[in-house]
Design a protein that fits this description.
The chain has about 210 residues and is mainly alpha-helical. Helix content is about 55%, strand content about 10%. A 3-stranded mixed β-sheet has the order 1-3-2. It has a two-stranded parallel sheet with strand order 4-5. A hairpin with a 2-residue loop joins β2 and β3. α3 packs across α4. The longest helix has 23 residues.
Length: about 210
């Protein structure tokens, strides 16, 4: 009961995220989505359900500029990137985590455009995004290095890709990637093969800068 106000915010942000992502990526695949406050120290996605740490609720400040808000938006995005479009989370975790992280940017861009710069600073730059985007879970020595590479440098890559090919091609690509792989286990091969259908831009320099295995 002491976290009722925070829970109301989570519910509203989840609703807004479903509306945003359904518009930008493709329709939400279920008729309901549950959120559970729990004793984990972070957020955790499952299909049709996600968990949020009690500490996020307890430190909620009434705004949308905090961990409760950004992680709620992030875990909702996993209903598209993990739930609907699956991937090998050990070998190619960037396919859900980079996309879910960048989806936070899409959410703030669509709903709170004045906070986009704040989002980049709070979520990405403050952590010092670095490392290979396509790192496997076996490749990094600790969780911080893994997140900085896969989540945050992954978001940097997706923004660089968007800047290179343009907004229209970028979002057409994401919608096509979602549609073709909804209900499937997608791979990096699928990602780049579908991308090639939407742009003729040369991204070899981006691949060299962000990816180890390509």
């Amino acid at each position: 009961a002491e976290n009722a106000n925070a829970a109301a915010m989570v519910l509203e942000l989840t609703r807004m995220s479903v509306v945003t992502y359904s518009s930008e990526f493709g329709p939400y695949p279920h008729t309901a989505l549950s959120v559970c406050e729990t004793a984990l120290n972070d957020g955790l996605e499952t299909d049709g359900l996600y968990f949020l740490a009690s500490t996020f609720y307890q430190s909620f400040d009434g705004s949308v500029t905090n961990n409760l808000s950004t992680i709620a938006v992030h875990e909702t995005a996993h209903q598209w990137w993990y739930g609907a479009v699956g991937n090998n989370q050990a070998v190619e975790p960037w396919l859900d985590e980079a996309l879910a992280t960048y989806s936070e940017h899409v959410f703030y861009e669509d709903n709170y455009p004045d906070l986009v710069k704040w989002w980049w600073n709070f979520r990405v730059y403050s952590h010092g995004a670095s490392g290979w985007v396509d790192s496997r879970v076996y490749d990094t020595s600790n969780f911080r290095a893994y997140v900085d590479a896969v989540y945050f440098n992954g978001a940097e890559f997706l923004q660089s890709l968007r800047d290179r090919i343009g907004d229209q091609a970028f979002f057409d690509f994401l919608r096509d990637y979602f549609a073709r792989n909804n209900g499937r286990i997608a791979s990096a091969y699928d990602f780049f093969a579908i991308l090639d259908l939407h742009t003729s831009a040369n991204i070899s320099d981006l691949l060299k800068a962000y990816f180890y295995y390509r």
